[in-house]
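tool_call predict_complex ligand=protoporphyrin IX containing FE
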Amino acid sequence: MTVEDPAAGRVPAHVPADRVLTWVPETNPDMAKDPWAAYEKLREVAPGVFWSPEAGNGRGAWFATSYELCREVLQQHTRFTTTMDFAPGINNAWPRRLIPLELDPPDHQRYRSLLTPMFAPAAIERLDAGILATATELIDNVIGDGHCEFMSQFASLLPSTVFIQLLGLDPTERDRCTGWVETFLRRGTAEERQQVGIDIQELLVGHIEAKRADPGPDLVSQLTLARLDGEPIEDEYIQDMCFLLFLAGLDTVGSGLGHIFRYLGEHEERRRELRAQPERIPEAIEELLRWNSFVNVSRTVRVDTELGGVPMKKGEHVHVVLLLADRDRSVFAIPQDVDFAREDSPHLAFSAGVHRCVGSHLARRELRVAIEQWLRRVPDFHLPAGTQIRYSPYAHFTIEHLPLEWSARR
Ligand code: HEM
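tool_result ok
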């Protein structure tokens, strides 16, 4: 474990000495092997909340590690904000705020209420046929081979195809969009990320213009037709919403698919269970999202405050460690076990409070269709013996490569 001596780095005077622990997830070698196990060790040495002087590029940052404190940070937007120095990487590559994520109420609510109906269950139902057709085609592409690299051949392609349809973009843009998000969230240098910001903006400018001239049933057209306080929404704000959707909607579902298919690929009895009772797939999804809660969420302290009895100063950064919150035994009985029948599971995989994921119904739908189709058509998929999984720990924890194999039927 890499929990080092906190001698180096800045420890502000108000931080109690027993709350200091050096923890830099980005450079911790254990994170690539198993982020859950790496973080789990912190629960004992730093329960509740701690300050890491080296985190945040050496500026120092708080980490909230219990369910109760994570939820408090997420729900208390008057004390913890997404608007102050929220994500410098993202801000540097995009000229404005991501809407609605980087807005506080009441502005947040004004813009979010535009998106809410577009992602409501009834609206998502209209995407069903496209989700099913895409999942079917992607499985068709690999089923005869008896193996695939699941992340690149399925997990990244299903959400990006659905997303392209949702925004009404040309289907030929899919691979470019997938590549951009990959560069932006994981592999890119600062310059490459900046270029991606410019490329996406260019694409969106043309697309919004085209949809204003000739609207269709897609989300961008709906935004061009929508009114806010009686006025049309300016193109720049539509771009800011669409850019957030790029980042929030593509890679998250891909990562979720990776974690779920890894688990199912390693647990034959669970695949059998869900094949026999496909109606239990939704509860399996909730449990696996809890068990592998994978999105990194953070806030900035908005006013001097305290959390769990620890003083915090305005402007300090707080990492909300959802993966620990969702395995907190004070909320979830035997949290390290995957229990599809777990009742009353208030997991935070989609966050909580005003910024709770607006795309959760779409995400669940994509995950469900993917699991149903794989279990129906490729029931014996599994990981090849000796597979070593590596995670990339950036905007969220993603499996880098997930080889799957099965007995091929031609
Ligand atoms: C399994 C897949 C997904 C997971 C685990 C997930 C998780 C999250 C989390 C944790 C947040 C809150 C961030 C915060 O509190 O700072 C969030 C917000 C958001 N998500 Fe998702 N997400 C998923 C899929 C999607 C999809 C498919 C879309 C849309 C296409 C989407 C759109 C958004 C948006 C727009 C926000 C910001 C909401 C706001 O600020 O009000 N997400 N998501």
